[in-house]
Amino acid sequence: MSRPLELSYHWRAPASLATIGLIICVTVLVHSRTAGWGGAVAGVAVLWALFMATVWGRTRALIEVDGDLLRVRRYFTTHELSGADVTTVREYLTANGPSYKVRLARDDRTCYVPSALLRQGQSTFLGWLLSHCPDAELDKGSRKTIDRLRTQGLIE
Question: Topology of domain 62-151, per CATH?
Fold first, then answer.
C-alpha cells in the first residue's frame, strides 16, 4: 500500500495569524462603535473566510503512487490515473512552482496534478510519468523540468 505525499508548507501559521488578525480587527471595530462598524466587521469576516477557504483548499492536495495508478486530488474530487490513459502533459506555473495538467484518452478529460503543493511532488509525478507513460506528449516546460531533475539526481 502506498502513502500519500506530505504537504510542502506549514498551513497552521497562516491560519493562526489570520484568525488572530480577525479577532483584533473585530475587537477594535466593536469597541469603537463608529458609523458603519457592522459592515466593516462583516467585510473583515468575509475576507477571513475567503483566506481560510484558500488555505483549506491547498491542504486538500494529494498525490499517491500505487504501481501503474496515480491518485491525485486538487480540491474535492480524487482521480485515479492509469499510465496507459495519459496522452499529454502540460506544465503550468503556480506561486509555489510548476504543477501539471494531464489529458486522459479514456474520456478526454483534464486532471490537475498539484505537484507544487507537496514534498517531492514534481519528482514523484514525473518519475511515475516516465516509467508508466513513455508515449505521453510532454510540453517544453515539462521536458526542461525532467532534465533539471535528472541533473539533480531526483529521477532516473
Answer: PH-domain like (2.30.29)
